[in-house]
Write a structure and sequence with these properties.
Largest sheet: 4 strands, antiparallel
Radius of gyration: 27 Å
Number of helices: 5
Strand order of the largest sheet: 1-2-4-6
Number of domains: 1
Order of helices and strands: HEHEHEEHEEH
Oligomer: single chain
Helix content: 25-40%
Distance between the termini: 106 Å
Structural class: alpha+beta
Number of strands: 6
């Protein structure tokens, strides 16, 4: 076999190997892509489950706090390091919060974990958890024993949760879109989900108040996940709150 012939065989062999390698790499890439997508979905589902568990624990912690102190805590502000925040001149005696609707969960006040480096409760995506409390009945829900000095039939917590931002206003949902019974609920807690939207990626997410936007009203939105909505929103039923407080002897 001549030297030239050997050289040509080497070239052909080398070229064939490169083609084979490219095909193998393409197949591996396709297989890895098929594996990584389910893994990502599994991670998202785990974070959703973990965050929902945290939100459920928060609801129980809030009810426990109300039983012990006869009131609900004020939300934390963006500068209160995870403790409840009162307005100027506000305190537990008058229940005047600095951020009734657009604050964060007062994790330090409630003893909730996990928290970030500044003491704010966080979800599974490390975003701060938001918390709103009603200011109805002259702050009766955040005032020490305020609920016990107001006739239960008169108490009217007014936080609303709607199924859509369409037709929403600062005080009402569109007809048929209310998820909370009239007149409303005393507490709304929510995570901004994977995208950490905090208002802006969609009208529905923008409807949920937060300290970084001009939106500061008592109306919220909750619905199943969508490409532009991944907030996880829960609330405390007033009847459950009253029932637990009555059972503990905090309400008549």
């Amino acid at each position: 076999m001549t030297r030239a012939h050997k050289t040509n065989l080497k070239k052909k062999s080398s070229g064939f190997t490169l083609v084979e390698t490219a095909i193998v790499l393409m197949i591996v890439g396709i297989l890895l892509g098929g594996i990584l997508v389910p893994l990502s979905a599994q991670m998202d589902q785990r974070n959703i489950t973990d965050t929902n568990r945290t939100l459920s624990e928060i609801k129980e912690a809030l009810i426990g706090y109300a039983i012990v102190y006869g009131r609900l805590p004020c939300p934390a502000s963006s500068t209160s390091n995870g403790t409840e925040s009162f307005a100027t001149g506000g305190n537990a005696s008058n229940g005047n919060c600095s951020n009734f609707y657009n604050g964060f969960l007062p994790a330090a006040t409630l003893g909730i974990t996990p928290v970030d480096s500044q003491g704010y409760a966080i979800d599974a995506w490390n975003n701060r958890i938001h918390y709103a409390v009603t200011s109805a009945n002259a702050n009766a829900f955040t005032m020490t024993n305020g609920m016990s000095t107001t006739t239960l039939s008169v108490l009217a917590p007014n936080l609303l949760v709607c199924s859509t931002a369409t037709g929403i206003s600062a005080t009402s949902c569109a007809a048929g879109a209310a998820l909370t019974s009239s007149p409303g609920v005393p507490v709304v807690i929510y995570s901004t989900g994977k995208n950490g939207g905090s208002g802006g990626t969609s009208a529905d997410e923008a409807a949920n108040p937060n300290p970084n936007s001009a939106n500061n009203d008592r109306v919220f939105v909750s619905h199943p996940f969508a490409p532009t909505f991944d907030d996880l929103v829960v609330w405390v039923s007033p009847n459950i709150l009253y029932n637990r407080m009555v059972a503990a002897g905090k309400l008549p």
